[in-house]
Amino acid sequence: MTIVPFPGGVPSRRGFMRSAGAAGIVAGAGAAGLPRLAHAAGTVNWLAWGGHVEPAGIKDFFEKTGTKVNHVGMGGNAETFAKLKLSGTSQYDLFEADGLWPLRYHQEGFIEPIDLESLPNVAKNMYPVFKKIPALQVDGGKMLMVPWGWNPTLLIYNKNKVSSPPTSYEALLDPKYKGHVGFSDQHEFMWPVAAMLLGIKDPFRMNKEQLDRAKEVLIKIKRNAPTISKGWNEQLRLYVEGTVWIGMSSPGRALTVQTSGGPPMGTEVPKEGYYGWIDGDILVKGAANRDAALAWINHIHTPEYVATNFKRLQRGTANRAGAELLKAQGAGDIVTANLMDKPEVALDMRLIEAPANPEDYAAAWNDVMAAP
Amino acid sequence: MASRADTDTTDRKQTSIWGLLPMLVVQLGLFIVPIAIMFVYSFWTTRNYQVIPEWTLANYRVFFENWTYPSAVWRTLWTAAIITAWTLLFAYPFAYWIARYTRRWQKLLIGAVILSFWTSGLLRAYAWMALLGHGGIINKGLMLTGLIDEPLAFLLYNPFAVVLVMTYFSLPFAVITIFASLEKMDWALVDAAADLGAGPLRAFWFVTLPQTMPGVISATILTFVPLMGMFFVPLLVGSTSSAMIAPLIANLMQAFQLGLGAAMSFIVALIVMAIIALAWRYIRFDAV
Q: What residues does each domain of chain B span?
């Protein structure tokens, strides 16, 4: 007897759709919920980095004022800027930014500058140097951003694997560290490394020829890296488990790695110089809940909120009272390692900013990412 | 004067047109309009964070003038093809086993396959990193037992890890789809083939596989298409030289290069549609 091929019929469209439907339903069952789009009256909509959120602080604020805080997670500076350009700022009362990015938002008319002395906790608790950052001051002293955290980005290395302390970014190109160099997906911190290695003065205003050279440097560093690290926590894991031996990070990272069970780490200031960041909260121009938003900023600048947050985050803080409370709580090592008691360092840093020609930078970064 | 039958037919037609309206709205709102917007944007450029609504082919030219994007698309295509092949290779026997030999436990086993959808994909990717990483369970276990002195570097941050983890992500789609086909298959034909002297392999090749081809093709498409847009897995577990096209498009969008990002998305969408159209050719129109 002959066995007939395709006895059940060659695949039919209906058959295909039925099978596809089955898998589609299964996929739908696991789909995550849609993000909240609420902008309810009396609720402060806070577009902020997740690391800045202390749920207990939000609860405390609600109990004291009856105002809810709706945290909406945000990504990098460029991504957030693109998001706000496209969708507008009306969904939010507050958002956050890094370095000199507030200037870019200000150009777009997104910001209402704040008189920091009008917020009692900020006036009382913040280090004076952060209240008057010249580049971020407008309108007779008002600030575009209420500074929160800060850090320089320095060289960090595993003392067990890197015998002599690296003094230059050139160490990132050293073949003996192949497979163990840190490479971040935060291009704002990577372009300055390449620019400083090449002696280019302004990493955020490179012309095409300079960008091409910087791109080649970054590709070389990337080839020395095992992976492109995504975010703060993944970077920490790579150091702790010993995958990455040398890279760039904040000075306090050495302590965090060690207290997380990782190897002994050292930090060095590269001879070429360094960049850093100061982040903070920005009041949306025409915010629907302006007063409540300002009250929330005032609330997070209590020493208790700051101490809780920075004990967990382990970065520099702009808040003197918070740093002092941390010391009083016995976390002096965290304060020292993260330069929380040396606010003057923050003003010596060159700050990251929006590139002047974003099209060229975006194309160049993709060339770096896609390079074999 | 219209007859009652004519009036009924007209009423039915009107009812069916109104009945279609919700689907039309969904089609337009969720599929056609977004694609149309993307298409329009792909002919516009951005300059210093401003969209310039002037018609140009510049974004498409970038794709052909810069090797970065074609190479990433090519890498994505063959990576997706390899992963699809591995997925089918594992999914078919697994689905077959569930459909044929686990009557009693079938619902439980299918439930277990579905269960993986209940956890965030990102978390599952991180779980794989916790398994495969230098400080992961496998390396720690091997080092504790003294089998190795240094962590095995080949487990993570390379094409092997990408294929492994993405195959894991694709498996449930393929298993469910192929299982659905096997479930409604006429198993009596397999028995008949055996009665008539066909060995198990011959019966599988000429009876089972052809009957389940709709499921296999569905599984192929449902595996391959999402892989083309896979964003986070290659970034998390891949090497620094294995960038696929989706993260590059995401970079463009995040940098407000909307036109260029849209053009790249559209090129990828066209490639995916061409692949589906090819698959479509093998689906017989009259076998409904």
A: 42-281
